[in-house]
Design goal:
Layout lengths: L2 E2 L6 E2 L20 H12 L2 E8 L6 H9 L5 H4 L14 E9 L2 E9 L14 H19 L14 E6 L8 H10 L5 E5 L7 H17 L14 H13 L2 E2 L6 E4 L2 E8 L2 E4 L8 H11 L1 H49 L1
Parallel strand pairs: 3-5, 3-6, 6-7, 7-8
Antiparallel strand pairs: 1-2, 4-5, 9-10, 10-11
Helix pairs in contact: 8-9
Length: 344
């Protein structure tokens, strides 16, 4: 139906082909400036990213974290004259740093798990880790539930757990399977083959295939999960990542001179293993996943999937407790009314 322009006598007839679509802009409005506004606001405060590293002692967890962020952020490098110790039980340690690059600040928290898998009897050695992850969800939930909430709730939730698989070249150990079966539903797990330079290329390929078979056989879904792909573009990118998981990585914080360039690498009798060279190891794939392409997605999946699942379960528990309490109260009230009648 034609409409009349209130400021003129001209009738406006809607076009069936364009009706309901955004109107054509006849000049610059400045909508794109919203991105600059968001960027300036975000840069005023540091981004938060919490990463947990899990694996036996001696697999290079601290070294790999240092290599990822090209900073000395591990517990080993923060304690003078530190000597690696094997703890009797899993004792979680957290260290936070502010890393700045080109004006962008990142508050990085590393949660280390010394003692995991180091004992002869490793039964239930994952319990302290599960407890820690759930405690951080509970802490965030309590902050959300208060009447006067903070404008920005501090986020100590674990956004990613890097699980270090020993380079045995065989199959996943029962310990590896049991750990990931218990944690993949509450945290984003990224498995890596530690010290991959100890395997030949053929051994590495076979080992990666066996690990993928073990994960599939046990119903373990590691990050990035297929069910969380938002569109075809994400699916294509994530399919390439899933093809390379678990990443075969080598970590080092030492630089060497190669063809006039300084590179991160490990020096051996046969040459230098270049950490950032994809022909030598898959460290670059891991770094790109954690930092350059999926850091925000890791945080989003943590918040909207893992934390949301925890929140719903806790609210259901509280509702059940409230219903039971009201039921008991009503029963006690009914019994109280019946007692005088029984005495007559």
């Amino acid at each position: 139906m034609a409409e009349k322009d209130p400021d003129s006598d001209v009738e406006l007839t809607p076009n069936d082909e364009t009706e309901g679509l955004s109107p054509e802009l006849f000049g610059y409005v400045g909508i794109e400036a919203v991105l600059d506004q968001m960027r300036r606001k975000a840069m005023k405060t540091a981004f938060e990213f919490n990463i947990m590293v899990v694996g036996q002692s001696g697999l290079g967890k601290s070294t790999l974290v240092n290599t990822l962020f090209k900073s000395r952020v591990s517990r080993k490098s923060c304690i003078p004259n530190y000597e690696e110790k094997i703890f009797k039980t899993v004792e979680l340690q957290t260290i936070s740093h502010i890393i700045e690059e080109k004006g962008v600040k990142l508050k990085l928290t590393v949660i280390d798990t010394p003692g995991f898998g180091d004992q002869i009897n490793n039964e239930n050695c994952w319990d302290p880790i599960v407890k820690y992850i759930q405690e951080q969800y509970e802490k965030y939930l309590r902050e959300e539930a208060v009447i006067n909430r903070k404008r920005r709730i501090p986020d100590s939730r674990v956004h990613c757990c890097i699980y270090f698989v020993p380079p045995t070249g065989h199959w996943l150990r029962p310990l590896d399977i049991e750990f990931m079966k218990r944690l993949y539903k509450i945290v984003n797990i990224v498995p890596v083959i530690a010290k991959a330079d100890t395997l030949t290329l053929e051994e590495r390929k076979d080992f990666k295939n066996r690990i993928r078979q073990g994960l599939k056989a046990n119903g373990i879904s590691v990050y990035p999960q297929k069910e969380f792909d938002e569109d075809a573009e994400d699916r294509m990118l994530n399919d390439k990542i899933r093809e390379n998981i678990p990443f075969a990585v080598v970590g080092t914080d030492k630089e060497h001179q190669v063809n006039g360039k300084r590179i991160l690498g490990r020096k051996t009798k046969w040459g230098i293993i270049e950490v950032e060279n994809i022909a030598h190891c898959e460290f670059s794939y891991l770094r790109d996943l954690l930092i350059r392409s999926h850091l925000q997605d890791l945080k989003d999946v943590t918040h909207f999937v893992h934390y949301e699942t925890y929140r719903v379960n806790r609210l259901n528990e509280n509702n059940s407790m409230s219903l039971n309490l009201r039921h008991l109260t009503s029963l006690n009230g009914a019994m109280g009314k019946e007692e005088p009648e029984s005495n007559l």
